[in-house]
Design goal:
Beta Polymerase, domain 2; 31% strand; 8 helices; alpha+beta; single chain; 5-stranded mixed beta sheet
Length: 234
């Protein structure tokens, strides 16, 4: 037993000496997402080009000093691994030390089709969640035997989306675009990072803020990100 421990200790020490980052980054799957397959380094520019609706949201909020947060912000400033999926499938933003009323003064001129969904009380800050679409809409409450909300077009009254919690399914993705937006509010944050994307300055939350949040959540995927994040010279 002691011999085996000694051998492994030597293996770990040798990898550290030779700066072998694969020692902690070579896991091929993200915990909690076992069906997602292998993980790959997130390419933020590629994600922005392939998601013009999400890019437009980020541009609008960046112009008001509100920075995109979470793993995508970390990927701008270092190495983050994800399965082949859209890294902009959900959008979290650092709104800073503003309350709900102050936040909505910023949001409503930018997003005319916007509904507040919920407020989550967290230690030291609040999360304000909104739903926005590119068309006027209404939310229909679930029936007694269901937890699914239906989103209908305000003019045609036709269903355009369904959601449970923040899991949104767009029924007409060719013409209808929509997104849940989470804003972290009532908390002082480190200054955001400016990122030049094809001539436009976008704001991303400081990687330290994202790491701090992940260490608070302590989900398997958060520890996965923390262990494998490699800061770049950005």
């Amino acid at each position: 037993m002691l011999h085996a421990i000694s051998d492994y200790s030597t293996y770990v020490a040798s990898n550290i000496i030779y700066n072998n980052k694969a020692l902690i980054t070579k896991s091929i799957r993200k915990p909690g997402d076992e069906d997602a397959g292998r993980v790959y380094q997130v390419d933020v520019d590629k994600a922005l080009r392939e998601n013009p609706y999400e890019l437009d949201i980020i541009k609008k909020l960046s112009s008001k000093g509100i920075a995109l947060a979470g793993s995508t912000a970390m990927a701008v400033q270092g190495v983050v691994y994800r399965p082949i999926e859209n890294p902009l499938h959900d959008l979290d933003f650092n709104a800073g030390n503003v309350n709900k009323e102050q936040l909505e003064e910023i949001l409503k001129p930018l997003f005319p089709n916007l509904v507040h969904v919920r407020t989550i009380e967290n230690p030291g800050y609040k999360t304000q969640t909104y739903l926005t679409f590119n068309v006027p809409f209404e939310i229909i409450e679930p029936k007694e035997d269901s937890s699914t909300y239906t989103v209908i077009d305000k003019q045609t009254k036709e269903p355009i989306a369904l959601f449970i919690n923040s899991n949104l399914t767009i029924l007409k993705p060719e013409t209808v675009k929509g997104k849940f937006l989470d804003f972290f509010t009532e908390k002082e944050l480190e200054s955001p990072v400016e990122y030049d994307f094809e001539g436009t300055k976008l704001l991303f939350g400081n990687w330290r803020t994202a790491i701090e949040a992940k260490l608070q959540y302590k989900r398997l995927k958060d520890i996965f990100d923390y262990n494998r994040f490699i800061k770049s010279d950005f």
